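cron nightly-structures :: item 1 of 1
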Amino acid sequence: MKILMLNGSPRKGSNTRHALSAIAQGITKNTSNTVEIINISDVNVGACIVCDACQSNGGNCVRPDDTKAIIDKISAADMLIMGTPVYWWGVSAQLKAVMDKFYSKNSEFKTQKKKLVVVAVGASAVPDTQYTLIHEQFNCIANFLNWEKVLELSFSAHEAGELEKSEEANAELAEIWKKI
């Protein structure tokens, strides 16, 4: 299985980045699946201007950016793992910009039976409304695209490096590969 991870955190030492890295390590260590992580803040993805050009020109955005390459990688993947810090009860702007560009391949994505995993990391304790809102948004996306949402994870960590120091969280992250 080809797994693509999208890290929506712009912070280099972020808890979201740690969560995705730990999950990737578990997958590559224990399975034959391939994993690629894209740190969205390291690529150029502009905001969608809803011009519809991407619908008729092969998915190219009229604003030159890295969107098409990322969307093509999503299209080629069997599973998408999306990680985000919680920003004002929602996903980061960086990840949302990519999600908005899903529009360029709506029809194609609807025919692909992808698996989806969502990782949300916020400052509030789990459970909390902020995690519920994010996971519900991804439920809507999965339902719309006919994708299978396999797993949703929520972690509470605010300070950089906090998740990495949590033995409980690291034990859970190390075992995620068994659930996907």
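cron nightly-structures :: done
The chain has a mean pLDDT of 94.
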